[in-house]
């Protein structure tokens, strides 16, 4: 179980950690700023830097077998690291920050399109949500205009923790039918955009939605009976 530093501060680009385990498929550290793939957001890439200056490139980050363990997937094997050695962590910040902007933009857009969310994905250059809705109700110009109007309000985002029981008592908080919030650790993390959105999410978000700037709706298409897909990019 690693200390997930990105949860408390998504803006950490670097940290010092200790190697806890080297598996065939990845490196575990005692603490990390690398976000592991989850909730539609890809895992971070970057490097682990040894005390002699050697850089170990990290090509992906995934969740490990136990809850809250994180596997840093090296670009090259074998990994030249030893258990117990200190490393400096460095994420590809430009990529992560783009993911944070697009991820937070999806939260805003999910309030503009009032329909159940049936899927979603975030990439560094684009993001999408699928809705269970009549496709004729999806108007690209309106979605873009209303999403950007909310972004322009420059609201601060907040992280809120509630218990599993509190979440069970408020099922309306779970908009995303395909991604149920992680359970079993006793508490669930929510993202709140005051007056706009409140929903369970373990991803990384911008502090102020104004940082998104603006979005552009690039495509709306039918991906199935319950999947009408809206794809966005940063404007
Ligand atoms: Zn989120």
Give the secondary structure arrangement, pairings included.
Layout lengths: L2 E2 H4 L5 E10 L2 E4 L1 E2 L13 E5 L4 E9 L6 E5 L11 E6 L1 H20 L4 E6 L4 E5 L8 H12 L6 E6 H5 L18 E7 L3 E4 L14 E8 L5 E7 L1
Parallel strand pairs: 1-4
Antiparallel strand pairs: 2-3, 2-8, 5-6, 5-8, 6-7, 9-10, 10-15, 11-12, 12-13, 14-15
Helix pairs in contact: 2-3
The site of zinc ion (ZN) has 6 residues, from helix 2.
Distance separating the two termini: 38 Å
Q: Major sheet: order of its strands? A: 3-2-8-5-6-7
Could you tell me the strand content as a percent range? 35-45%
- Please give the number of β-strands: 15
Please identify the structural class as seen in this structure.
Answer: alpha+beta
The arrangement of helices and strands along the chain is EHEEEEEEEHEEHEHEEEE
What is the number of helical segments per DSSP (H or I, 4+ residues)?
Answer: 4
Q: What does the largest sheet look like?
A: 6 strands, antiparallel
Query: Which small-molecule ligands are present, each listed once?
Result: zinc ion
Specify the helix fraction band.
10-25%
Shape: globular
List keywords for this structure.
six-stranded antiparallel β-sheet; single chain; 17% helix; binds zinc ion; alpha+beta; 235 residues
In words, what does this structure look like?
- The chain is α+β, with helices and mostly antiparallel strands and 235 residues long.
- It is 17% helix and 37% strand.
- It has 4 helices and 15 strands.
- Helix 2 (93-112) packs across helix 3.
- The protein is globular, with a radius of gyration of 19 Å.
- Residues 103, 107, 191, 201, 203, 205 line the site of zinc ion.
């Amino acid at each position: 179980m690693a200390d997930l530093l990105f949860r408390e501060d998504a803006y950490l680009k670097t940290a010092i950690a200790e190697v806890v385990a080297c598996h065939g498929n990845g490196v575990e550290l005692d603490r990390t700023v690398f976000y592991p793939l989850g909730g539609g957001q890809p895992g971070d890439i970057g490097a682990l830097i040894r005390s002699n200056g050697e850089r170990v490139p990290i090509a992906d980050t995934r969740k490990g077998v136990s809850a809250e363990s994180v596997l840093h997937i090296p670009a090259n094997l074998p990994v030249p690291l030893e258990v117990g050695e200190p490393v400096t962590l460095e994420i590809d910040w430009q990529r992560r920050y783009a993911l944070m902007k697009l991820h937070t933009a999806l939260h805003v857009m999910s309030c503009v399109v009032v329909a159940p969310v049936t899927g979603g994905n975030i990439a560094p250059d684009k993001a999408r949500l699928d809705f269970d809705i009549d496709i004729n109700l999806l108007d690209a110009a309106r979605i873009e205009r209303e999403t950007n109007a909310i972004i322009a309000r420059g609201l601060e985002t907040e992280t809120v923790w509630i218990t599993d029981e509190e979440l069970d008592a408020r099922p309306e908080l779970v908009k995303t039918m395909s991604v149920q919030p992680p359970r079993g650790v006793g508490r669930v993390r929510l993202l709140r955009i005051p007056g706009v959105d409140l929903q369970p999410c373990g991803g990384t978000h911008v502090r102020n939605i104004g940082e998104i700037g603006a979005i552009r709706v690039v495509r709306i298409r039918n991906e199935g009976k319950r999947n009408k897909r809206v794809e966005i990019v940063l404007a």
